[in-house]
Amino acid sequence: MAGVGIDTKIYPDMVATPNVFGGGSMSKQSTSMQKDSPEYMRATESLTLDEMMYSDMRKKIPGMTRVPKAKLDNINSLKNDWEQKKNDHINFVKQNFTMLECHRFVPKHNQKVNQRRDLRCECGAVLSDHAGMYGITARNIATRDMMEQFLIPEPLKKIMSQDKRMDPPPKELPKVEWNRKESFRTSVTNAFGKINFINVEYTGGKKPAKYVRLSVTDPIDKLITLMKDHWRIMEPRAPNLCISVVGGAKNFKLDGRNRETFNTGLIKAAKTTDAWLISSGFNMGVMKAVGQAVSEGQSFTWDDDRMAHVLRCIAIAPWGYVRGRRFLESYNDRGRFPANYKTSNSIPHNQPVPLNENHTHFILVDDGFRNNFRSRVESQPSKDGTKDKFRSVPDFRAEFQARIAAPVKDGGLGIPVVLLIVEGGEDTLSDALKCLEHDIPVVVCAGTGRAANILAYAYDHTKPKKEGEIMKAKYQRKLGEKIIAMYGEKWAEDEIETKVDKILGVVLKCCEKREMMIIFHMNKHEDLDFAILSALLKGKKKSSSDLQEETLNKLSLAMTWNRADIAQEEIFREDVLWKKGSLDTQLLNALLLNKVDFVKLLLNQGIMMSEFLTTRRLQELYEKSVCNNKREAAMKNAYTDTDHLIKMSNRLGLKGFATSPFDLNDVNTMITILMDKYDDNANIFDDENDQDDQDGRFGVSLRQPDGSPPTKLDTYKYPYKQLLIWAVLLNRQEMAKFFWQMGTEPINSAIAVSRIYGQMSKFVHRNESTLKEKIEGYKGEFEQLAVKVLDECHIKDRKKAIMLVERKSPTWSKMTAMQMAASAGDQAFLASAACQNSIDSTLKRGILSAWKRIFFAALFPFLIVTKFIEVSKLGEKDTNILIKFFQFYTAPATKFALYMMMYLCFLGLYTYMLLVDFSVNKITYIEIVCIFWSCTFIVDEIYTFITYPSPTTKGKLRDWYGALKIAELLNLVLHVIAFIVHSLHYNQEAKTIYCINGTIFCIGILKTYTANNTLGPKLVMIKNMITELSLFVMILLVFLFAYGISSQGLLYLQRQSSWSILKDVLYYPYWQLYGEIFLEALDTDTDCVDRALQLANSSNTTVDATYCRTFNFLVPLFLAVYLIIGNILLLNLLIAIFSNVFKSVDDNSKEIWKYHKYFLAMEYDNKSALAPPLSIITHTYWFLNGLHVKHAVKRRRKVYSLLPVTWNIYSCLKKKTMSTYLRRFKEEQKSASEKFDRLQKRVDELFKLIEDEFIAEVDDNRFDENRFLETLQQQQQQRPLSWPDPESIVELSKFIAEKKSQIEPIEEEKKEAELTLEEGDKKEEDIDGA
């Protein structure tokens, strides 16, 4: 598409439309170019969307214009390219397509016209509409006379002479033979190009429709070539379906609910499969209904800067029945681009019909006839006595549809075709039969009238041919009556039986292929797209050699529709055997198209994911999913928006996500950054024992298709883990949930996904709030899944649940669930019962006593040997007092108590040193003790940082070192600096730094509150309030500076440069906020004025007193406004902010406290049992021991790793717990919709039963309600003053009452089901809200 016209890239010289796609006026530099240079205008018109986006920016930069320089340089080559495409199009049409025109004027007999010039030929056209009588060749009178002599046979020349054209026609015309084979002649077509409907206003954009006129004898292969190569109808995506719609014409109407059902179902089916819609294209009947449906769902897509319709609606119409067809003809044999055409809603009787404006492509088939719609043309005998075979327009359409549906290897397009019947006349029944003969399935919209109702009735009362008779005689009689009621109004009495038999034969032939028919009841169902898909899947079964290919094609179609339920019923039956590897491509497509239900369905067919997912396939998944080129993504069926992933990879310095070839190492690097630690487990064989089991432990082969064993790096040990990561990176939540269910370790996997989502949200720009909120919502969903599964396990077995959260996961790089949850900020998970039990167990390490007793026992150790402190034996049969002492003092809770007590002692000693013992002449012993104590604090902090359970240094800083920790560590370093400064005799400076140290040391007492469930959340509130306070200060500074600058400027007329000015600007306004008004500072400085006067008098010189402060009446006014804003408005704003912070934290105070409790446990779990300064002993020992034994940590880790059997037990436990939770969750989510569906199905069956019984009773008793009412009417006419027969009335009343009694219970059940459904919906909403 070009920047100015819709199609200027193809036919720039034919477009004269203004720029409607944006862009400002031309810059001053290019104004002269615009007027004088056609090349510049052509370059402007050729701008693509991306180039137009920057056109306004370029024109505002000196030296640049709207059009890029490269575009101006290549304008000639672009022009030649456009001209070449246009010429190729015109030459192709003229070489391959023709038109049929009548060259022999023979009027029909018995025409009722007033003048001879109005006589119509056997072809349907008047004389002036015949070949050579109109257009450019007929402008010369001599030429017209010559053509008349050629067209009019000799017996008719006198009657049709020029001087008698205005006379009435004779009663009898001479009999002249007319034969279409001899009368119709072909010539090069003169109508092709684009149609512009000038009297129609489009909503959402406008694009001319393409059209071509061709004859019924032209080859269909050339038409398909025109559509593919020149119309580019297969771009940007080829269709997966073709829906052909036939039905009622002039007298057809589709209103109300039926219209909504038709439009919704048709557009849903078309958009889901990128389907083509085919109709006759006229602005009437079902064709107009199709156009209205397309208009409601139409949109545009961009393909290589070309605007294309999303819904492609193809019209195959007879050329001779198009009103205003002359406006589509070209008089220079170069086509019309565009042809301006006016449509109309007026449909006169027996007259041509205008085209519908909502069709995108028009194939105008010329059969030679004019001004009438001939669906079928009878064969006529030729001179040699044989009958000529003439292809009609419906025949052309049927063959065109058959060619579309034919396999590619047979010259077709391989696109499934389905016929949709909506109402319709006799021709519709013939169209249905012809499609069924071409193995095209048919969907009948029952309830729309005429042909549709006839086929629906016949379908419901026929049996398969193998069971004997197709339809019983009583149903055939009823069907005949329906045919007469539908079509018999215009039939003569002597032809009723013949026509009924003919139509009945067509209907019965259609029912012989009832397996290819689907009846869709418009009044009972709403899913028309479901019926279309069902018809395609019920298509004719091919030979055994093509059966599997046909089945796979149907599977692809069902996958496009995302109807796994139909695929389960129609495709994956128990009698179907699939070859190994035959479904691998379908599974890959299901993954790419995000069809979760189909992935489940395919895995149920025996596909082993451990064999399917190789490194090559995983790389293919990423390559096809993460595509930087949108056009390439569309061609690869990669519909996922992966811009966020590409942006994130660019920020991380990983270019493989936006380039080709794709590298899986970039994925590993990205996950490592997001999770701190990652192992892709690419080797499926862990040890030598696995090498001997290449055929599978459970009889499942892991070998490659050629029989060779898989290489180590071909497959993955945890394939579902790789697919889970793939789905998470692409934001495919439902797919990720499925792989989470299928994989191992559901708790750890859910937390790992939560971690990845949490990190991904940080890389999303704040402007993309919707995407950010969506990712954070996905994170919360997986966190809740982990919590629910863990709670389910905790209910069943408390101890095993604790071990599950403490165990290092072999799937996720030896990280525990709590460790990943802490990094992800999953407060709800760490606040769960199992995690809190684990944290309490870690903190107390077997101590059963309360926290208060632990503090007392830490102060008075003799209480440990008494019953005041109770401890668990931790699996030992018996313990002694020494073990009890060790158990007590190595517990993190005891360490915390000792550390806090020792810290208070240090603080007291430091306070004494600061207030009493500090000396300016020397360094005291207490100061030395304090600095030594601070050094032990630093060593302890370093040791805790090294041993903290985070896999990376960045993770340790993020998870453990908060603002308070950093301030504490810096304060300790500052303490050492103060000691050095004091030793250098900078006493005042040292004392100042010591005082700052003391302030921070006192604030450090707050960390003792983290263990308290009441004070702990308050610290979080303070932290959040400080963050909000800093933002509030930014607002306050604006008003503070505004008042300070203005007030100082008014008080001093002039002033010398000094730093005191800045102090006055900030000092007075700040303290005035707290009530210190400083009113005396607003008055005139009399002392300054007096001094200036005295100095002037003593020195007899003039001294300027303008440097003194002088009162200004505006300053108090400014002060009043400033205080109103600061003390009332901003202060109340701050209070409101703090209230909101308090409320948000208070609502989750317990959860927040439990979350921070984990970090407390991890910190003190790795600390020394001796608190500083005594901890230096253990730290020195561990340091020396670590130098001596370098691999002690590795050996210790190896000792504590679980055995494979134990790992399998815990994996089975988690999988079983997850299955239990999911099963219970699904049961809770079950609404009454299933019950309602069952009742609805039962109602339909009962109605069918009642209908069958009613027909049987009518046939047996020879009672017909319509005939009965006719008899009553006749009796009333014979006896107008008498009543009808009472017995008949009673008989009819009893019959109606009996049927009502059968229906009433069903209606009551339906009402109950609806009430139950409403209750189920409410319950489902409550569940969703929870």
Automatic annotation (TrEMBL):
Keywords carried by this UniProt record = Ion channel, Ion transport, Membrane, Transmembrane, Transmembrane helix, Transport
Q: Which residues form the Ion transport domain?
A: 899-1148
Which intervals of the chain form a coiled coil?
Answer: none
* Top-rank taxon, per record: Eukaryota
Give the subcellular location.
Membrane
Instruction: Cite the TRPM-like domain residue spans from the record.
Output: 570-831
Q: How does it sit in the membrane?
A: Multi-pass membrane protein
Please report the stretch or stretches of sequence annotated as the TRPM SLOG domain: 209-374, 384-490
User: What's one Pfam family here?
Assistant: LSDAT_euk
Q: Which InterPro entries match?
A: Ion_trans_dom, TRPM, TRPM-like, TRPM_SLOG
Region span, Disordered: 685-709, 1305-1330
Using the UniProt record, give the first listed, main subcellular location. Answer: membrane
What transmembrane ranges does the database entry give? 896-916, 928-948, 960-981, 993-1011, 1031-1053, 1113-1138, 1169-1187
User: What is the recorded name of this protein?
Assistant: Transient receptor potential cation channel subfamily M member 3
